[in-house]
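Data deposition worksheet. Section B asks for the primary sequence of the deposited chain exactly as it was used as input, without tags or linkers unless they were present during the calculation. Section C holds the resulting structure in token form. Section D is free text for depositor observations; keep each observation to a single sentence. Incomplete worksheets are returned to the depositor.
Section A, Depositor: J.P.
Section B:
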Amino acid sequence: MQHVLHASAIAILLAVGTPVTVLAGQALPGASVESLLVLAKERNPEFASMRYEADAAFDRIAPAGALPDPKLRVELMDITMAGEQSPTLQPNRVGGTKYTVMQDLPWFGKRDLKRDIAALEADAANGRALGSWADLSSRIKSGFAQYYYVHQNQRLTSEILDLMARLEQVTQARYAGGIGAQSDAIRAQVEQTNLRTELIALENENRMIQARLNMILARPANAPLAAPERLRPLPPPVKLDYAGLEDRVRGRNPQLFAEDARIKAAEKTRELTYKNRYPDFAVGIAPTQSRNAIREWELMVEINIPLQQSSRRAQEREAEAMLSAARSRKEAAANQVLAELSENLSGLDAARRTEVLLATSLVPQAELTYKAALASYENGKVDFASLLDSQRQIRQAKQNQIKAQAEAQARLADIERILGEEL
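Section C:
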């Protein structure tokens, strides 16, 4: 599992580091969420930093299991030759020179445990990098859904504004013909003013969303984005079964993967702590030079004596507590992500059903109501207030339909963040 996740991370994150400039003639990003995701993989500095940290963690594996550097000690003995000469540091003019080469050797198995701990910590860092990308892509997907919603709302408001302009002409024609009230034309003008005010607010919201997306993409805040053209298709309901997704979450969620690596690292740390009951040692060889020749050889073995047992018992209790803490953290993380999964699945289902209901029932009904009200107004059977009310109903229904679509996309983004992969 660790190797699968690491390989997929390398495939996803390989392009990090080189900014990509949108040249003249190239399509602007933003028409689809996929174009934003591609750019974020190449540019986002937060994601790049997590990837570099993961690479650094993997580079710590080899040093963790390496032997410490050997030590060389040079001892000049009898540097005055029993007082017959002035002190000297020349090896061939002293009573003897001992060259001691020593190598520290940890107890059997300790180096392997240290290497395993470093490898597991690297897996945890890799899980954090994958989690960083899952969070980042979720923000992009949710931001794009909001971008699409505001853009569609702008388009709808502009259409209603054009409609109100035509209604104003109808009211003025009726007033000129003596069959309508002047107040109807004034109310149509007031409604247009309100719509223009809403358009200003929507334009401002659109600019803020673009600024947030550009921030994630490491682009200038005012850099242009293409108008959003489409949303991603929602997965079929069969792919949104909670039981099946729960298994995928437990096996693929980056946070749980990182917590599992921490548990294994804590287990290895506990094992290493218990091995500290056994002494480390050092070996050495020491040739001794007398004048210009090596005349003696010595061998040595040095062992540290593990007398501080109370300190070691405390370290062992610490290791046990840290292992229990790691297990509890994973359990808490699993409970959290599974609760979020259930919540978002419910929200996605509700948004999907709402959108279908609006598209197939309420929007057509509102359109029929408006057409009937318009015909009745032209015939003098209803007042202008009723016509405005029917116009507002159709606009509200279409806004709710777009909002349901955006809500479904935001829920899907959260589900994919929890899964650590796309559905």
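Section D:
The longest strand covers residues 293-303.
DSSP finds ten helices and four strands in the chain.
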